[in-house]
Specification:
Elements (H helix, E strand, L loop, with lengths): L1 H4 L6 H20 L8 E5 L1 H6 L5 H10 L6 E5 L7 H14 L2 E7 L6 H7 L3 E4 L1 H9 L1 H16 L3 E4 L5 H10 L3 E2 L11 H4 L6 H14 L3 H21 L4 H4 L1 H4 L4 E8 L4 E7 L1 H6 L19 H8 L5 E2 L3 E3 L4 E12 L2 E10 L11
Parallel strand pairs: 1-2, 2-3, 3-4, 4-5, 5-6
Antiparallel strand pairs: 7-8, 7-12, 9-11, 10-11, 11-12
Helix pairs in contact: 2-4, 7-8, 7-9, 9-11
């Protein structure tokens, strides 16, 4: 087992020799496979990098000897601590200069975190399987996983999710938007290298299953737009003839999922006080009372307000997010209309996890 093998060295010299031996064997084996497309991921310990020479001439000579193109190698920095971040960065830059890709392993565990991403600027980030395990058990963790993938993409990294062992986990991986997947669900480790290129999961079937599942639960927010469209038309029509917010929003605020309604002008500044429903009042947490007052708040920074201003007459809806005024999960509906020649945006927060009955029309 790898964990036992890498416990054997008793000195930095032995550790370096074992690391080189492993890389030599993998490169020699891989160069013998008639495959001009795939990558070979090579694990490299940060301890070996920072305790070895500044430039790994051994590896450059190895690639030259085996004639394996460096662009088919991914140098994978495993999750281990190092006290020499500068040396680690320099050596990773050397591998990149050789023409290799670089990867960070086990992101989200131990020392593989955003600090290492910022320091090394890897091409690929491999997410630790514990993130997937948590996402399998907890819907909130699944949302966090999706957010991490998005942040890594914005950082210019491709993302690989490790530990996929079931079709449900494969669905989570697809939904998270990762670029690569790895795990027993697709292929188990084997010493028969000739069979590895022939063993493959039926990805067409997997994607068909994902599409079927997604079709059933497709964009539930669009159902909310359809459901509340008539209410928004009624409210805005009432506001346009001079009806007060409390009167215009009365019926809307009675819906069990509605938390609050508020009105903003074209610069994003809130007009009048926020109208809070009975449901919203019950959802208020006294610990967050300092955040409740939104009179004259500036909402222009919120995307839902800018979208409404950009497309008047269309009802917009956000993805679920944490509402700053009450620290609860909600979605926001926003609608831009004209009142006395000026633009107004009506906003309505809908509880993402209401305790009442499901949204339905009689």
């Amino acid at each position: 087992m790898p964990i036992h093998l890498f416990e054997l060295p008793v000195s930095d010299t032995e550790n370096l020799l074992l690391d080189r031996l492993c890389r030599y064997l993998h490169v020699r084996n891989y160069s013998g496979i008639h495959d001009q497309l795939n990558w070979l991921f090579l694990n490299v310990s940060p301890r070996v990098i920072t305790s070895g020479s500044q430039t790994d001439s051994f590896f450059g000579n190895l690639l030259a000897k085996t004639q394996l193109p460096p662009h088919r190698i991914v140098i994978e920095i495993v999750e281990q601590p190092t006290d020499d971040a500068d040396r680690l960065r320099e050596t990773v830059a050397y591998y990149r200069k050789l023409g290799c890709l670089t990867a960070i392993d086990d992101f989200g565990a131990g020392h593989s975190n955003f600090e290492r991403i910022w320091n090394l600027s890897p091409d690929i980030v491999k997410l630790d399987r514990k993130l997937l395990t948590r996402a399998t058990e907890d819907h909130r963790a699944r949302q966090i996983l999706n957010g991490i993938v998005s942040l890594l993409h914005q950082s210019g990294c491709l993302v690989l999710l490790e530990g996929v062992e079931t079709s449900d986990q494969a669905m989570i991986a697809i939904d998270a938007g990762v670029d690569f997947v790895q795990g027993f669900y697709f292929c188990r480790p084997s010493t028969d290298l000739s069979q590895l290129c022939n063993a493959s999961t039926d990805f067409d079937l997997l994607l068909q299953e994902y599409k079927a599942r997604h079709q059933i639960t497709r964009n539930p927010t669009s159902q909310l737009v359809d459901f509340f469209w008539g209410d928004f038309q009624t409210v805005t029509a009432s506001l346009q003839i001079g009806t007060t917010m409390s009167q215009a929003c009365g019926a809307l605020l009675k819906h069990v999922t509605v938390s609050r309604c508020y009105l903003a002008d074209e610069s994003g500044l809130q007009i009048e006080e926020t109208m809070i429903s009975d449901t919203g009042t019950r959802s208020l947490d006294p610990r967050f009372k300092p955040l409740e007052s939104t009179s004259k708040a500036d909402w222009y920074r919120q995307q839902y307000l800018r979208q409404a201003l950009a497309q008047p007459g269309k009802l917009h809806i956000t993805a679920p997010y944490l509402c700053v005024t009450g620290a609860y999960m909600c979605v926001t509906l926003s609608f831009c209309f004209t009142h006395n020649g000026e633009q107004r945006v009506l906003c309505c927060d809908i509880l993402a996890n209401p305790s009442g009955p499901a949204v339905s029309r009689a």
